[in-house]
Amino acid sequence: MLKKLKGYMMPIAMILGGLFYSFFGSLTFLTPYLIFVMLFFAYCNLQLKQIRFTKMHILLAVVQIFGSLFLFLLLQPFDLTLAQGVMICVLAPTATAAPVIAGMLKGNVASLTAYSLISNLSVAIVAPIIFSFIGTNQELPFFDSFLRILQPMFLLLLLPLVLVIILRKIWPKLIASAGSHAGISFYLWSMALMIVTGRTVGFVIQESGDSYFTEIMLAVGSLVVCVAQFIVGRKIGRKYDDTVAGGQGLGQKNTILAIWMAQTYLNPIASIGPGAYVLWQNLINSYQVWRMRKNI
Q1: At 114, is the secondary structure helix, strand, or coil?
Q2: At what angle are helices 31-44 and 142-157 packed, to 10 degrees?
Q3: In which band, very low, low, confident or very high, does the pLDDT at 40 lie, cut at 50, 70 and 90?
Q4: Residue 138 carries which DSSP code?
Q5: Which of 40-44, 216-220, 255-259 ranks highest by mean pLDDT?
Q6: What domains are defined for the chain?
Q7: 28: buried, middle or exposed (CB in 10 Å: 19+, 13-18, 0-12)?
Q8: How confident is the model at residue 143 (pLDDT cuts 50, 70, 90)?
Q9: Residue 115: strand, helix, or coil
């Protein structure tokens, strides 16, 4: 029963978050803690000595970072909120669940795990710089804004990894036990999805009708960049005989983190972009898994 329910958890979480947006929106303060714990469990199964970085990983990171900046600069003259929403859909790091999907698609799980680490570290370093220029703290001096954003980003993305490395040295049994219970991340993700959906719906309801066009364009824009990232990632991966890892690494995003970053550092309406991305990437993943099973 529980196994069947997991397959429908994403739409259930989004529906519940939307229906009870007032309640779940009030729990927004929990989101960074949920992300932290999810990353901690993900890193518990990460063996650093097995990680091998390749040219493909560097190229994917370049596309992720500079592609997000290019799209922002391209769209900013037309609509700042649209530019922010599309940009965050590209800048967001690879999802912690991406290696799971890669395994189902017979891809190189170790390679994708390596890129997931690079992707998260890159965002932890680059995002505070970008948000200092285009985010809600632009009125502050650059260094003050950078430090204000760097602290929570560092704690959120890097501290779980540092904590796992330290605990693996002094308390390996704890890390082994946590790694064997990594499935709890799925339920934490579902809770986080309800919360960010509730907050996003709350923002949409509070806004006037003047923003509806932007909201529609954010959903369409996130669809375009979602498809594009899967295609570009697969093309890059194909050059290195790593097609699946390339596609999932660039296309499958940590949307919970992306929504949180948009709601915290950008125009909250921009979070509709990564909010819609949740749906698009899951549709693409479902199609890929279905096609793989059909061809077996």
Answers
A1: helix
A2: 50
A3: confident
A4: T
A5: 216-220
A6: 9-291 (1.20.1530.20)
A7: middle
A8: low
A9: helix
Calculate ∠ Cα 21-24-28, nearest 5°. 120
261-280 CB burial, b ≥16 within 10 A, e <16: bbbbbbbbbbbbbbbbbbbb
Give the 3-state secondary structure percentages of the chain, helix then strand then coil, rounded to 5.
Answer: 85, 0, 15
Report DSSP state, residue 268.
G
Report how far apart, in Å, the C-alpha atoms of 65 and of each of 88, 155, 285 are. 10, 20, 23
Structure tokens at 182: 């990594």
pLDDT digits (tens, 9 = 90+) for 144-192: 666 666 677 777 777 888 888 888 888 888 888 877 776 777 788 788 8
What is the Cα gyration radius of the chain?
Answer: 18
pTM above 0.85, yes or no: no
Two structure tokens written together for 128: 């505070």
Close Cβ partners of 136 (under 8 Å, ≥ 6 residues apart): 265, 266, 267
Say how far apart CA 181 and CA 255 lie, in whole Å.
22
Rounded-to-integer distance, Cα 196 and Cα 153, Å: 17
Q: How far apart are the first and last CA of the chain?
A: 26
The whole-number pLDDT of residue 239 equals 93
CB 218 within 8 A of CB 71: no
Task: Please give the full DSSP string across 6-47, using - where no structure is assigned.
Answer: HTTHHHHHHHHHHHTHHHHHTTGGGHHHHHHHHHHHHHHT--
Please say whether the dihedral angle defined by the alpha carbons of residues 159, 165, 170 and 174, taken in this order, is positive or negative. positive
